[in-house]
Amino acid sequence: xxxxTLKNALLLASLSTLLSGCASFGKGVAEAFLEKSDAQDTRxxxxxxxxxxxxxxxxxxxxxxxxxxxVHGVGxxxxxxxxxxxxxxxxxxxxxxxxxxxxxxxxxxFSDPDQKLGNLRVxxxxxxxxxxxxxxxxxxxSEITRDQKSLLAFDNSGEYSYRRAEVNDMLKKFSNDxxxxxxxxxxxxxxxxxxxxxxxFCWMNKDNWDEIPKDGRHGCxxxxxxxxxxxxxxxxxxxxxxxxRITIDGITRMVSLLENPDKKSTLRTINKMKREALQKxxxxxxxxxxxxxxxxxxxxxxxxxxxxxxxxxxxxxxYTSRMFNETSIIAFSDPNDLLSYAVPHDFSEKxxxxxxxxxxxxxxxxxxxxxxxxxxxxxxxxxxAHVGYSKDDRVVALIAKxxxxxxxxxxxxxxxxxxxxxxxxx
Length: 426
Known about the structure:
Helices cover 35% and strands 17% of the residues. The protein is built from 17 helices and 14 strands. Strands 1, 2, 3, 4, 5, 6, 7, 8, 9, 10, 11 and 14 form a twelve-stranded mixed beta sheet that branches. It has a two-stranded antiparallel ribbon with strand order 12-13. Strand 12 and strand 13 form a beta hairpin. The longest helix is centred in the middle third of the chain and has 18 residues.
């Protein structure tokens, strides 16, 4: 065997093991090499933008609760997909005591009770002395797209898959699972997914744990939420890939419905007091594998694009029409994630609704390890770079405790470089 042939064989072995990581195929030649070469972690973590508090600051408040909604991205997901991430987050926040078993709600819309809208799993966490707590809402909307994606099931059968090389077959099945979701979202299922998000957001506004059903199919009415005590709650959204577009679109849709009360919606009779409660909130949205620029292609512009000062400064002419007091987008992107993008500095002004009062912090972070592929060049597993965010300790620490504040995690201070950008304010 020539040296060239040997190098090619080693590279194929490396790729086979790396790419099968998404399917948990176990360790191989490349993985063993990675472990050996990981004595010093040199992965990049660069934060550019405004400082942010993370979830931790809300836990210190004497009034209100901290509520987190997680929205998954492409690919078929089952309830419980966020368990590993939630356990890591809870450990960072020292919320290691579960107050009770989780609750599973099969989401339902009042306008079409027979239509399935996915699942909402709600978990309540506390610290040891019960002085701090977090309500975690996991939205699973895959049920809406699952039947349509079954159209490609034939391509995963042995009749077709056995003809492919092993690595290519794995990649094709991954593509069949994840590729259709953005396409389906552009069709009529988009409305169903956004209604699913709206229902999850509605349940987030319930103030009493006993008001949340343990299981079964239920719909949530916005007219029975947003109580006086709930006005003090902290809202945090965590999303991945397509889930980030769903989160932004879902919030923007609610803004539109609030602005147009004649539209048929459970939001149509929200009174002025409840609207003002939303407008006092500072919302954080953590976007893992951010895809907003790519998913903007071919889409219509939002209803409202105006100078930020008009809606977001107290002296602005449209100040009373804003949705939130401020919306902080913290966008995580691995440069080796083929489906992830930073948010350009002028993106929010051009393509996101002005009523959200958005500021953006970009985080350029290597969640996949970069290594020398046996002398053939640097490489990183692109699949791990796409799906590895929720397992990365630095990502979890940034979401938990932020950066540029008095309670940032020591791991973040050691591993991440922060460049403050202060010119984002109007």
